[in-house]
Each structure stands twice: as C-alpha cells, then as structure tokens.
Amino acid sequence: MQKIGKQTIQFNCPPSITSTACIVGPKEAQGPLAKYFDKCLEDEFWGEKTWEKAESKIIKETVNMVIAKSGVPSSNIDYCFAGDLLNQCISSSFGLRDLNIPFLGIFGACSTFVEGLILSSIFVEGGAGNTSLCAASSHFCSAEKQFRFPLELGNQRPPTSQWTVTGAGSAIISKTGNGPFITNATVGKIVDMGIKDANNMGAAMAPAALDTLITHLKDTNRKPSYYDAIITGDLGHIGKEVVIELAEKEGFNIRSNYNDCGVLIFDKESQDTHSGGSGCACCGSVFSGYLYDQLKSKKLKKILLIATGALTNATSSQQGESIPGIAHAVSIEI
Amino acid sequence: MQKIGKQTIQFNCPPSITSTACIVGPKEAQGPLAKYFDKCLEDEFWGEKTWEKAESKIIKETVNMVIAKSGVPSSNIDYCFAGDLLNQCISSSFGLRDLNIPFLGIFGACSTFVEGLILSSIFVEGGAGNTSLCAASSHFCSAEKQFRFPLELGNQRPPTSQWTVTGAGSAIISKTGNGPFITNATVGKIVDMGIKDANNMGAAMAPAALDTLITHLKDTNRKPSYYDAIITGDLGHIGKEVVIELAEKEGFNIRSNYNDCGVLIFDKESQDTHSGGSGCACCGSVFSGYLYDQLKSKKLKKILLIATGALTNATSSQQGESIPGIAHAVSIEI
What we know:
By secondary structure, chain A is α/β, with parallel strands linked by helices. Chain A has helices at 26-29, 51-70, 90-95, 112-126, 140-147, 201-220, 236-249, 261-264, 280-296, 314-318; strands spanning 2-4, 8-10, 16-24, 39-40, 79-84, 103-105, 131-138, 163-164, 167-174, 181-186, 229-232, 258-260, 277-278, 302-310, 325-333. The two termini of chain A are 18 Å apart.
C-alpha cells in the first residue's frame, strides 16, 4: 500500500470483502431495505433482560453469522475490530468475549464500521494476517437511554432528530477473494464547526463528511462521477442536504449519485423517524445488507462509503461543548 | 511484517519510537517516578472548570509536547490513534479536535496506549504513512465520578481498589529513527474468568495479561529471561502477584524481571493508593516517562510492555455482569 495525496491510502493488492452479515430490529424490518437484511428481530429485547444485553446478543450473532457464511474457521481469522456507541463499548466487548479471536476495540462513534474496514484492510494488506473481521452495533433503546432521555418518559423528538438503528453489521476482509475489493481508504480528521444542537447530529457531522469527500476526490484525482454511488453513513435527510449544498459550493456536483444510509433505511413518509436513521448499525447494516448485495450483483460497481461519527457524549453536551464530527471513507470496487 | 505463531506480528523493519511525552497530576508528582515526567500539574483542574475538560487539556498538551519534542511538523504526521476511559472517549476527541491530523479513535480501556503503539507500527511498517502518533489519557476525578461514586461523597475505598492515574502519555512512531524499536506485537484476546468485583480490577485483568504473556513467549519462542524487563500496564499489587503465581503454574518464572506500571508509579507505603495505579495514563505515562528514558539510556535494552484493560462499565456492573479483560503486548528493543 502507499499513501497518495494528503490522507488517502491506495491498496496495491486490494483486500476482498468476502462475506457480510447483518441483523436488525423490528422497525428496520418495516423499512424499504428489509429484504436485504439477514435477520430481522421481532422485538427490541430478543429474549434478553436489558437493551444492553440485547445489543450484545445482536453483535454476537451477527459476527457468528458472518463467520458461518464465510466458511472460514474462526481460528483462521487473525483479528477482530469492533466498537459501538455504549459507554466503554460494552456491546462489543461483552458480545464478542467468547469469540477467541485477537480483538482490537475501536471507537469512531457512527463511523466505527468503516474505521473497522480500514484497519482490517491495512492489517491484511500489510501482512499482519490473512483475514480480519470487523463489526459495529447500535440499539435505539440503549442509545436513547444513554444519550437522551429515558424512553418511558415518552419525550417528544424534534424534527431534526434521527432514529438510532437497532442492529449490527459485520464483514470479513481477506487477502484473497473475488471482491468486492477495498481499493482506497481516506482517514478523516476531526472537524468541529461549533454546532451544539445534540438533536441535529446530521448537521454537526456534515462538515466532516464533506471534508473527507473532497479530500478523497482530490487525493485520488477523481470526480464524483467516478463512483456509481457515494454513500454517507448517517447524516439523515438534513445532513444529506447540507452536504449536497456544501459540495456544490466547493465545485462538486453530487446530486445524481449521492445518498445516505440514514435516508435509505427508513421510509420518510410512513415511518416517522424525522430526519432518518443513525447509529453505528446504520452504515453497518445498510452496507452489509443492501450495498454489499448491489456490489456482488454488479448493480453497483464502484462506491465510495463515507461513515460519519459525532464524537460527543451526554456530559459534554451538559458542559456546553460543541459536537466534533469525523468521517472515514473507503472506495469499494468490483 | 509477518505473523508468527498464533497472535504475534514480527516487524521486519521495526518502527522507531522517536519521541515520547507525558504530563501527570499532583499525586503522581509525589511518587517515585516524578523526575521522569515532562510536566507535573499542581492541581487536578489545570485552570479548567470540569475534570473532563482538564483531562482533555492534559491529552492535548501532551500531544503538543511530543510533537514539539520530535521536531516533526504536525503536517508530516500521517495518523493519530488515541483513546481514553471517558464515555465515548471525549477526552481524546475534544482534546485533539484542533490537531488537524487524520484521527482513528481506539478503545482498549487501560490497554489503549499499547493498542495505539501496535496500530501505529502496523500503519508505518505497512506503508500507510511514515509517521504516526498515539496517545491515551485518564483522570482520577473524572474516572471516579463516572465509574464509581461522586468524589464529594468521600466514599471509603476497599483495599483491593486501585488509583486511576491523572495524566496522559504520547509517542511518535516513525519508519526511520534511532530507536528504541518496536520489534514484535502480540494482539490479545478478550479473557473473562467471571470475576465481578469492580473494586478488584487487577485480579480481573490478570488472566488476560497472563494469556498474552504466554502466547507472546510461545509465538516468539522466547523465555522470560530474553527481556530485561516484562512490564504490565495496571494490574497493581494484587494483580501483579496473581500473574506471578499463574505464570509459575504454567512453567514460567518471571519473579526476577517482572513489574507493573501501577506498582511503579506510586509509593505503596506513603501514598495510600491501596493496590496501586490504574487507568490509560498509568501505562501511558510510565512508558513515556520512565521506561522510555531507561531504553534511551540503555539501562534497559529489551522490554516487553503488556498493557491491560478491563472492558467493563457502570451499567454492566449494575446488571450483574463479570469483567472481561484484555491485554496487548509490544516488545521494544534498542
């Protein structure tokens, strides 16, 4: 691999995404992408006593599923990169504690899934191993409880708010395979434009998405039209519009081939999620389900996946802090 | 690089740790390693209004210091890996938001510093860049508030408890340099032996440290005596004794050359920290201060640094969960 431009890595022997898996909750099962998910749960608890334990079970079973689908014995998987939104990433560490695969915890808020794809690719192409696994989860109920208000309060959600996706996505990245291949990775910088509204994460993360998008295009000397689709992680309806407008101001027209996982996963009219989906599982499940299917069936041949994260917590909001954003991108081609 | 044995990476062109820096709090300044720290604070707030903001300032200034010491312009640093113990790692993301270096958030609880050394080494040797930075922080007051009880309560601490180090450590890892060099890395697995006592983290993490130690020795075909020193991250007095005993049962005598950063950083008799130090900054500051000095002056020529993490949080303890541990190791030689 080599670094090109300011922030982009070019893989000379692009690692292959050999399998993906995703499990989602009941609300996601009513959305337009339902048929692409491997498993849809009937309720938010999945037989567990708490939402946190349910989220751990979701990431655990998603990882078991991707391993089973890949046919690779877990003893042949060299590394696992995983993270989530819960304090100290307990969904991942409890869910994956019996996995018996060398584990590296990552935290990029909702950008975690793509951070995992990047680290997996670098480990595999760099020679640290042949096969790596990445996973990320989120859960509407555990996230609302932790970041906002108790669900029992029945609090009204402002129109700018997004709906944390319940679910997990996972992928296996291998030195060899038939693709789709990870050809480039652009590691994002933290971007903080001073937005303080914790109910408008899309707007807070949009400048980071734009920064990574433009850096990627300049580093690779590509136009937006190089890609069949440019997909951000969880900017939702508002953040998506912000990115389109900001990109236009910078001279990049992305109207025709840009979309966002948070826009794709829920139906705007019927599902009442306000500004769309969010959470680590938003990008994780939309990629592992819908986008991976489109790549495998060659309906999409070149995509740029830009996962976005809001690096904030409940305490920092209470202390009057703004919301730093980050976005990491991978180009995936077949 | 190549993988040797089960979990170990051998670097063919070992990356060099070209600079380190550390800042610690007032209690650490009274300990036996005070003279090795770059800066000792007079109080826990450092002019900030909250402990969280103080912790952010500590990691920010530590990173600024390591960059200044290295003489490398920050625009030439390709990646920053950082993490901490605060919910959603806000110490790192707020402290480093103006850094303008591509940022990858990591979470390994108190093993975070060594996780950063490993990822930096793999990025640099793999060809993703020439120079990488890693950092980790913790703060006694923000950690007590978040994980245990409000400090104002004046709660009694049980004898097995450890004292979270206030401070941060940071290192710059480069493709070229005069060493010390990172020659091997062993990525740990999550190990959960069912210990539930959140006031005895040393015992909870000791089995993970042992697992990584023995795996490393077997993978590299080395005896403990290969190293001038084997140093764990923050097992403290109790965890250290557990590791010595468990290692002996497995046929490895480490009594003569093994110690722990949590034992080294505070004076057992005079400082009343019970079982010793803990936190991301324990291993981070003891390595960046004391151990790096010993390596540069060749008083130690070969060390194995094994940072340990307890992958737990306040909610999981309340829900009756046990404490999964993890440990990552790097061998550092000059």
